[in-house]
Amino acid sequence: MECSSLYKRRGLGSRRFHTKRISPQIHVVSSCSLDSMTSSPLLYVGELTTAQVVAAAVFVWLFIRHLSAKNLRHIPTEGGPSLPILSFIGLYNFLAHGREIIQQGYQQHKGRAFKVAMVDRWLVVLSGKKLVDELQKMPDDTVSSATTEVLEMPNVFASNWHKDPVHVPILRNLTRSLALVFEDMFDELSIAFREHIPANSDRWLPVHAYPVISTIVTRAANRVFVGMPICRDSGYVHMMVHFEEDVSKAVKLLTILPGFMKRAAGRNATVIDKRIQQCLDYLRPVIDDRMAMMAVFGKDWADKPNDLLQWIINEVVARNQGPEEVARIVLFINFGAIGTTSAAILHALYDISMRPELADTLREEVEAAVAEEGWTKAAINKMRKLDSFLRECERHNGPTIVSMFRNILQPVTLSDGTFLPKGATVVTPTFATHFDEENYPNATLFDPLRSYKSDKSVQPQLITTSADYVTFGHGKHACPGRFFASNELKAMLAYIVVNYDVKPEYEGVRPENLRRGLTNEPNNTARVLFRGRQVD
Ligand code: HEM
Ligand SMILES: *[C@@H]1O[C@H](CO)[C@@H](O)[C@H](O)[C@H]1NC(C)=O
Ligand SMILES: *[C@@H]1O[C@H](CO)[C@@H](O)[C@H](O)[C@H]1NC(C)=O
Ligand SMILES: *[C@@H]1O[C@H](CO)[C@@H](O)[C@H](O)[C@H]1NC(C)=O
Ligand SMILES: *[C@@H]1O[C@H](CO)[C@@H](O)[C@H](O)[C@H]1NC(C)=O
């Protein structure tokens, strides 16, 4: 309980901004986070507020949830009883053993739906490709994306993006510009790698992988998001990395609080207004300049920048909002981009450190592509084995046990006869789908070249979503950042295999993943050994 007393003393959220650098010590502090949550969710909340408030809240929320479960009675429950109060057992089970419960439900109800208990809602889980495809095809007036809402973005960011997803068209613009921004991104990540992993060829350098990788990911992404020199400013980078960590923790905390406590707790945990001001410390001069130009010249002028920051400013100005809103969106897009991408690289790094022969294969492919195309997006597109490896990493180590959160806006009946009432929240299982032998023969086998060897006429890539590959969700609300993510991931991994040899800290041991609640995360304390390769 050392961990919780630490929170109590310093307060969740405001804690880490006193520190300027990411170092292993801070990391030890930050990694104690909500570890205790899965084992004793109540105890944890008890540390945060008073026991009485929580006890009262528990009864109120169980009662409310019981009422809202009435119209879902026809859908079988997994992981515990659906009776009032007793359904708390289901919630507890789900937080502790979510992946197993979903797996069980998937096997038992394949091709149909079942439900599991979350704190303030039930999740209706659709198992089987047919239902997932039906869900994916439903029109906008029947289902809406619930991702930002379920991830507590309205409470954490005090935003209404779940109703007005301003970020989606902006990220689509980013997808269209990937070839243009590649050179900058690659420039930034190579400089960052050299700076943060200065390995030479005569000895193995142990690297605490998580903080280093998130720093490099953040720099490379922000070179594209907000440009030079801010993306390289260590204050800005650390602010973003810590902000992402704080939000992730806040999200985990909020998912175990009842609805009426979320907003206050969310704002208290992330202190979003303060974070916006901290972000503006770096961005305000640029934003002010650009807004002044817009005030004078209108929508267009010679040399108007065409970058993500400008697209955000365009949207904000069109809504008559100010620089604070620009910062809020920059923070949000960073939240979407940093943790997910860093986790994916870490998994890939842990996996490749165990397989030197795979590193050789990928290196050959990368070197051939770069010899033809230089370090460009065109070269990245040719790295099909590398892509296949990353896709397999995400199949085995995706970030959540369910995805495709959708709200049912109009009552609808699925082809298996399942009735989904208005207001239900629907998801699809990720791991259960990805480990289904019907979808992936020898599913538990980690086969890096699985999709490279695919006999489908169009080889699936990392960014290709389908009813049997839902790491990025599927359908029109699938992750809008995945094209950017794939590009950044492939560029980083290509850089790694060409410039370093890697091996695990303990021979033959891949650091285990951490499963908590809905999430599956890479070990964030492990080290990876790097040795520089002689490149001329
Ligand atoms: C490996 C990296 C990533 C993974 C695994 C991932 C996964 C996901 C998933 C599963 C969803 C929900 C999709 C659905 O409901 O169908 C999502 C949504 C989203 N992602 Fe990603 N993502 C990644 C990278 C990124 C990046 C780099 C960005 C930003 C540049 C980003 C921004 C977003 C945003 C803003 C949404 C919400 C879209 C909405 O409002 O509907 N993601 N992501
Ligand atoms: C809000 O955060 C402060 C510290 O930042 C803490 O002292 C306080 O107890 C928190 N309040 C609630 C309701 O969580
Ligand atoms: C997309 O980019 C174009 C310029 O290339 C810009 O005019 C437009 O406002 C951007 N749209 C969004 C939604 O950001
Ligand atoms: C599954 O693995 C076994 C043994 O590793 C192999 O003999 C078999 O061909 C594999 N099946 C498929 C469909 O890949
Ligand atoms: C993460 O890895 C380190 C070193 O490999 C190990 O000591 C630690 O116990 C691991 N943490 C978890 C939670 O598995």
Automatic annotation (TrEMBL):
PROSITE patterns: CYTOCHROME_P450
Binding positions for heme per the UniProt entry: 479
GO molecular function term, any single one: iron ion binding
Gene3D superfamilies in UniProt: Cytochrome P450 (1.10.630.10)
Cofactor(s) recorded in Swiss-Prot or TrEMBL: heme
Superkingdom classification of source: Eukaryota
Signal sequence, renumbered to the chain: none
Keywords: Heme, Iron, Membrane, Metal-binding, Monooxygenase, Oxidoreductase, Transmembrane, Transmembrane helix
Record field: transmembrane: 43-64
Pfam families (UniProt xref): p450
Family in the record: Belongs to the cytochrome P450 family.
Protein name, entry field: Cytochrome P450
